[in-house]
Amino acid sequence: MSDLLPETPSIAVLLVAAGSGSRYGAPTPKQFLTLAGRPVIRHAAEAFARAGLAIQPVGEAAPIAAALEGLDHRPVVAGGDTRQASVRAGLEALAELAPDIVLVHDAARPVVPDGTIAALVQALRSHRGAIPAVPVADTLKRASSGTVEATVPRENLYRAQTPQAFHFQTLCDLHRSAPEGSTDDAAILEAAGHAVALVAGHEDNIKLTWQEDMVRLERILSPSLSPRIGTGYDVHVLVPNRKLILCGIEVPHERGLSGHSDADVGIHALCDAIYGAMAEGDIGRHFPPSEAQWKDADSARFLIHAAGLVASRGGRIANVDVTLICERPKITPHAPAMIARLAALMGIDPGRVSVKATTTERLGFTGRMEGIAAQAAATILLPD
């Protein structure tokens, strides 16, 4: 049967998200709950996107579109009254694409273990269907009215998982004629007499069903984070006919700071602290003053970039501390507004931001009010 698949088969995935999740007991369907900072459905979708698969979501359009915002996927298809009907609707939507292989995955399974997709594709070179499965390890009991009726032999029993993989046309044809009532798509092939291959499943491939499952999944999907500390320092000269921008706000003063951008020493020092904590150089590396596009630029853009870089690496900003060094103007009256502005730009709680000031007792260039200096420290948390 291996000649039925090209060497590099085209693959699409049905991301089935039409269920109500009634067993979980939350007002929001479980596939849209937040898990490790993102909707449950998005975790699996990101895994399929990284694999370069065409994603066909099935379910209610608005919440799916919101959960998958920014990810490339096909238009959402409305689900049916049953899972089987929802899968059939998704298959019909994929008919125009006609992939060689279709994966059918429950949106409530956020973990797609490494190697699972490759193993399924390999199994489809000799079978029309394949599923990941885990051998049953626990002793099984059949019960009635709260008491044990019998012990059930567990030999050759497996717990089926998704994504389940199939030759697209085979599954599509069988779905069109299959009676309702199948518990999964592999059962439809089994009923038609096709052998379905088993590949190794993974204990992390948990279907979110009960609230205690969320605790287990949080542990799996929330990597351990290590603290990184960076420091920054910046200086700009005070000149007439220039607005004074400090920590993202305009401060009334007879002079402003001179620089290629708006010369916000507070934000510049803070950016350097964040970049330093990530070993990403300094602000000049990311926004060279030699480039005309940054002339008179709002330094808020620089801080948004620095915070975004932390987020792109799966980290978060734990806290920042900025010290402005000047004789005048007085910083304390403006510090609350500065804290609020910096927190908003970084997307963190204001309680994680400190802005304070000091003088040099009239010593040096800041003491002579020739310029303003700033130093900053930042603690960020990055995955190990």
3D structure, described in words:
- With 384 residues, the protein is α+β, with helices and mostly antiparallel strands.
- The chain has 2 domains: 2-221, Spore Coat Polysaccharide Biosynthesis Protein SpsA, Chain A, CATH 3.90.550; 225-383, 2-C-methyl-D-erythritol 2,4-cyclodiphosphate synthase (60s Ribosomal Protein L30, Chain: A, 2-Layer Sandwich), CATH 3.30.1330.
- The protein is built from 12 helices and 18 strands.
- It has helices at 40-50, 61-67, 83-94, 116-123, 168-177, 185-191, 211-221, 265-277, 283-286, 300-312, 335-346, 364-367, and strands at 11-17, 34-35, 38-39, 54-59, 101-106, 129-135, 140-144, 147-152, 158-160, 164-167, 196-200, 225-239, 245-246, 249-250, 256-257, 316-325, 353-358, 371-383.
- Strands 1, 4, 5, 6, 9, 10 and 11 form a 7-stranded mixed β-sheet that branches. Strands 15-12-18-16-17 form a 5-stranded mixed β-sheet.
- A hairpin with a 2-residue loop joins strand 7 and strand 8.
- Helix 3 (83-94) crosses helix 5 and helix 8 packs parallel to helix 10.
- The longest helix is centred in the last third of the chain and has 13 residues, at 265-277.
- The model has no long low-confidence stretch (mean pLDDT 92).
